[in-house]
TrEMBL record:
Compositional bias of kind Basic and acidic residues: 1-10
Keywords: Endoplasmic reticulum, Membrane, Methyltransferase, S-adenosyl-L-methionine, Transferase, Transmembrane, Transmembrane helix
Subcellular location: Endoplasmic reticulum membrane; Membrane
One annotated GO molecular function: protein C-terminal S-isoprenylcysteine carboxyl O-methyltransferase activity
PROSITE patterns reported in the protein's UniProt record: SAM_ICMT
UniProt organism field: Smittium simulii
Protein name: Protein-S-isoprenylcysteine O-methyltransferase
Length: 201
């Protein structure tokens, strides 16, 4: 038979054990594996890396246009593109003026014989440029290749078109001299062309 002191001691011991079980336990520090698994459960959209990448993709394409005044290189690139566009538009202007001025005399085929209706066109745009249609097409085609930053196409266009127009003009001018004689020789002497290599033909 237990004594009252022993009974009281057992009650106090049981109460102490119960309080110890109810007390909050300190959290153990997470090891690397646990931290990695916790991080991997983060949604991809909530990830800081994803947010940074999204911000870059969203604002980078429009940044040169929005803040161009703060970046001299963007101003230079824009000016270069506008210059190439102006070159192409100038070429189209020359070719269109040639068509409007020559009217029915404008032909893609070089005529080898002279009809009574044929006249030598020396007014309008032909008063300033001997071959406005050819020069206009050359400027239009090569200017577009520079504007879209395609150096390979620019070189190919310049070489192929240059060779084509030089050969064509050489044949055409000999034909015009045969058809119009001294009138075309005088016209050729007084009116140059914007392509330097054609001036020597």
């Amino acid at each position: 038979m237990s004594s009252p002191k022993n009974h009281e001691y057992h009650q106090q011991s049981s109460l102490a054990n119960r309080n110890q079980n109810l007390a909050p336990r300190p959290e153990r520090p997470l090891n690397k594996t646990t931290q990695a698994s916790t991080t991997s459960t983060c949604s991809p959209i909530e990830s800081p890396t994803f947010a940074s990448t999204l911000s870059t993709l969203t604002f980078t394409p429009i940044e040169p246009l929005t803040f161009a005044s703060n970046k001299p290189q963007n101003i230079a690139a824009t000016s270069f593109a506008l210059g190439c566009l102006a070159m192409s538009l100038f070429g189209q202007f020359l070719r269109s003026c040639a068509m409007v001025t020559a009217k029915t005399s404008f032909n893609h085929i070089i005529v080898s014989h002279k009809d009574p209706s044929h006249t030598l066109i020396t007014h309008g745009i032909y008063n300033y440029e001997r071959h406005p249609s050819y020069v206009g097409f050359f400027f239009w085609a090569t200017g577009l290749q520079i504007m879209i930053h395609n150096p390979i196409s620019f070189i190919v266009y310049a070489l192929v078109l240059g060779k084509f127009f030089i050969d064509r003009v050489c044949y055409e001018e000999h034909t015009l001299i045969r058809l119009f004689g001294s009138d075309y020789i005088m016209y050729k002497k007084n009116v140059p062309t914007l392509i330097p290599s054609l001036n020597s033909i």
